[in-house]
Amino acid sequence: MDSKYAAIGGVNELRKKAANVDNIKVKKLKLCKENAQANIHVLQNGKEKQTKVLPKIVSSEDIQEARRKLPVYSVRGRLIEEIKKHQTMILIGETGSGKTTQIPQLIHEYRLEGNGAIAITQPRRVAAITIAFRVAAEMNTEIGAIVGYCVRFEDVTSIKTKVKYMTDGMLLREAILDPLLKRYSIVILDEAHERTVSTDVLFGIVKLAQKERNEKKLNPLKVIIMSATMDVDTFRQYYDNCPVIYLEGRTYPVTIYHSKMKQEDYQYAAVCTIFQLHATTPSSHDFLVFLTGQEEIETVMYNIKQIAKEAPGPPIRVCPLYAGLPAQKQLQVWKDTPPGMRKIILATNIAEASVTIPTIKCVIDTGVVKERTWCGASGAERLRVSTCSQAAGWQRAGRAGRTAAGAAYRLYTAADFAARPLHATPEIARCPLAPTILLLIAAGIEPNTFPLIETPPLDSVKSSLLLLKELGAIDNDVNPKLTTLGKKMSMFPIDPKYAKVLLSAPEYNCLEEALSLVAVLSSENIFYSPMHKREEAFKVKQKFISPLGDHLTLLNVYKAFCKATLKKQWCKENFLNHKNLSYACEVRQQLLTVCQRLNLSVSSCGPATDQLLKCLLSGLFTNCAWLRGGPGMAAGARYVTGAGAAASVHPASVLHAVRPSPPALLYSEMLHTRRTYLLTVSVIQPQWLHQVAPEYARRCRASR
Ligand SMILES: Nc1ncnc2c1ncn2[C@@H]1O[C@H](COP(=O)(O)OP(=O)(O)OP(=O)(O)O)[C@@H](O)[C@H]1O
């Protein structure tokens, strides 16, 4: 990558230079910052027609011409020779050089996959979907035919599919049923540097599958590990010194600019930089801005829209892009804007790797990322904004310069960049491992001896095995074997705790309700509370509220949604997110299919909602909290969890202000920000824990 290390006039300097308008901006920004917690979903509610066809397909000739310009194209002959020669190889190539879109096509052109298929994994669903669309267009074929994709709750492939883009999680799920991955002759693990738990486990799965297929004289499995920014030595060592192919060159240069001085407030710096560039660059140059999460994106979006009313420059369309956004909304960022209008995409790191948004010419990199870390001992997740690695910085810059020369503006200094770690801490070292361990055992793999590329923290493995044992998924936590229940649990594409809830539901006569609730919990926030109508939204919400807490409140909303006839209109009137509720319906259908396969009887507990809460407890028994020091009246009453962590009910919970505080609660999530909060909370009777999970209750009591 061309890195000029020229410095943009620091944002503070910019501010000083700015004329009157800028003073107004400053004022407005400050105003909005005070409301940083505010939810401003209304601004996302674009009126555009939703379409799934993307990206915009230009003529076939243009596409072929663009392909010929890619670095991969000029060395295709040599590349194919290398791929033929080696069973495992590492391929490093600059961002945008054509690894993800071209290598699988090249392999297919030479029919190296034989009778099998080519699987290409991506850490993120949005990448898997959009790349599959692009490659299908390049190959002039329908999506779902030769080229397809498979992501959670969506499989667009057929028996004809030879080039299959999929999330790493989906390939891992396939490995449960077929640990030798026999339907594939070539597996490409892309974006290896991201080191998600699923990709880390897949590194080992393909290694074992390859060995066993060789030993059994089955058709050999070829493995290609790809990235632009990976830690080559670690991977090479892990794959027995396999060859590393470096692919030189990129199509278009990206000029990197660093801020001259440290920026105290990256959101503010981002908005200033956006407007400076907005005033000086052609409207056909779209911007991609990296921020840390939904709330921040919404705040910045609000600020941009306010400032844009007075700022010089072409009209603007602001598009958010974060994991929680419904899929259709995510795909909106690929939609063209009318000529003369600039698109500004505000994204989290989900746009950091793999994706091509063709019109992006400027990347604005705040240099930060929101990371979840998990504490095995307390079960609390910690959400932290931290500086991202150098690899992430290069990947972000790589989103510019995909179809023309581009620029990346880093809102941090060159010295700051140089001082950052080369790579981020792998997810396996900071995530709950129970879901992955369950999948490993289901695939017949011994988790304690599985050759992971990096050993996860011992206490994390131990506590995950203990949880699986207590859920009844495995017979013991030393040399674990899957129980019959565990086998069934592994068939659900959800957290084992919730799989247990569904499997226990027939016993409590509440599978109807449990399915709806788990589906809603698997979706993003269904409530929609725009900043300027908060009170109204709060009032409307009252009609759904259950005094027993958030779970039953969510269920009430879901049931009412199903009954509503004009659903979109109804959601609008009730301050609910139509997309997320519709998504929950799809998820419910998928979960129901698994339940039917398992012959579970689907019945309803009707008004006996205690049954549903007890059922919920059967999976979430480790998520109980007790009031400290008797029935408290004080605001922000403190609870203590089974693992001994002190926490309060989150302000967004319907139980937050309930007095007297219930003596015992069940929660779906525990989150540590500045304080530790219990999220999605329900009232339970303390004695239920003894009835539902006696062994755990005893252990808990002993330690309290
Ligand atoms: N949707 C698209 N629209 C237009 N051009 C595209 C699209 N997808 C890919 N391309 C073109 O193909 C090039 C190669 O993309 P590809 O994803 O294969 O690169 P890569 O080497 O895998 O990059 P990265 O390391 O960033 O994932 C892009 O730089 C761009 O020129």
Give the helix/strand layout.
Elements: E1 6-8, H1 11-17, H2 20-34, H3 60-68, H4 71-74, H5 76-85, E2 88-93, H6 99-109, E3 117-122, H7 125-138, E4 147-151, E5 154-156, E6 163-167, H8 168-177, E7 184-189, H9 197-215, E8 222-227, H10 232-238, E9 244-247, E10 254-259, H11 266-280, E11 286-290, H12 294-308, E12 316-321, H13 327-331, E13 342-347, E14 360-365, E15 368-374, E16 381-387, H14 390-397, E17 406-410, H15 414-419, H16 434-442, H17 458-470, H18 484-489, H19 496-504, H20 511-522, H21 534-541, H22 550-563, H23 567-573, H24 578-597, H25 609-620, E18 624-627, E19 638-641, E20 646-649, E21 664-672, E22 676-683, H26 686-692, H27 694-703
Helix pairs in contact: 1-11, 2-12, 6-7, 8-9, 8-16, 11-12, 16-17, 19-20, 19-25, 20-22, 20-24, 26-27
Question: How would you summarize what this structure contains?
Answer:
The chain is of the alpha/beta class and 704 residues long.
Helix content: 40-55%
Q: Tell me which ligands are bound.
A: adenosine-5'-triphosphate
Give, in spatial order, the strands making up the sheet with the most strands: 5-4-6-3-7-8-2-9
Radius of gyration: 26 Å
CATH architecture of the largest domain: 3-Layer(aba) Sandwich
CATH topology of the largest domain: Rossmann fold
> How far from one another are the termini?
57 Å
Rounded average pLDDT: 85
- Taking pLDDT < 50 over at least 5 consecutive residues as the criterion, the unreliable ranges are 1-57
Query: What structural category arises from helix and sheet content?
Result: alpha/beta
- CATH class descriptor name of the largest domain: Alpha Beta
For the biggest sheet, the summary is: 8 strands, mixed
Number of helices, where a helix is a run of at least 4 consecutive DSSP H or I residues: 27
CATH superfamily of the largest domain: P-loop containing nucleotide triphosphate hydrolases
Number of strands: 22
Proportion of β residues?
A: 15-25%
What does the overall shape look like?
Answer: globular
Overall tally of structural domains: 4
Enzyme class: hydrolase
Pfam families: DEAD, HA2_C, Helicase_C, OB_NTP_bind, WHD_HA2
Catalytic activity: ATP + H2O = ADP + phosphate + H(+)
Domain Helicase C-terminal: 273-445
